[in-house]
Amino acid sequence: MRRSARLLALFSHQRSRLIVEAARMTGDRASAEDVVQDAWLRLSQNARDTQIAEPVGYIRRVVRNLALDEYRQRQRRERVMSSDAGDAAETQMADTAGADRALMARQELALVVAELARMPPRMRRAVELHRLSGAPLREIAAELGVSVTGAHALVTEGVERCRKSVRGSRH
């Protein structure tokens, strides 16, 4: 089987999981499907020029990065649109309990994202796979080259770090 055919088969096998992972990050299935399609285009382009040692890890990382980019772009668009509506409307919305909760959720998300960025790469990947993708510990262990117990420890410590970061901001 040619390399491109193997990559297509591998991608097709992973596609559903990639869409779920991207949808959790973007909050929108249609955007997630676009992200996964863009990731496939990048994988197929880069595979022509170079040998990709871990195509599953590569495509997951590309999906994650593209989904984060999509999420950030949407946030910027929403900020621009809301600032165009004027400060008076924004002030009225901020007075409602729902807006307060939304603001708190965005702040907590920013704290979690910052904490993830400070984590060692393997710990961050373990948390992302477990919490964002719903990957089982056995799969995480295989991808990271650690025991299932080691994968559990990475996830547990990473999640606890995120919780402490959020709790610390409330005090």
From TrEMBL:
Pfam families in UniProt: Sigma70_r2, Sigma70_r4_2
GO terms (molecular function) for this protein are: DNA binding; sigma factor activity
GO biological process annotations for this chain's record?
DNA-templated transcription initiation
Ranges for domain RNA polymerase sigma factor 70 region 4 type come to: 113-162
* Organism of provenance: Sphingomonas sanguinis
Family as reported in the entry's similarity comment: Belongs to the sigma-70 factor family. ECF subfamily.
Q: Which UniProt keywords apply?
A: Sigma factor, Transcription, Transcription regulation
Per UniProt, residues of the RNA polymerase sigma-70 region domain are 11-77
PANTHER family the UniProt entry points to: RNA POLYMERASE ECF-TYPE SIGMA FACTO (PTHR43133), RNA POLYMERASE SIGMA FACTOR FECI-RELATED (PTHR43133:SF63)
- Known InterPro entries for this protein? RNA_pol_sigma-70-like (IPR039425), RNA_pol_sigma-70_dom (IPR014284), RNA_pol_sigma70_r2 (IPR007627), RNA_pol_sigma70_r4_t2 (IPR013249), RNA_pol_sigma_r2 (IPR013325), RNA_pol_sigma_r3/r4-like (IPR013324), WH-like_DNA-bd_sf (IPR036388)
Provide the protein name: RNA polymerase sigma factor, sigma-70 family protein
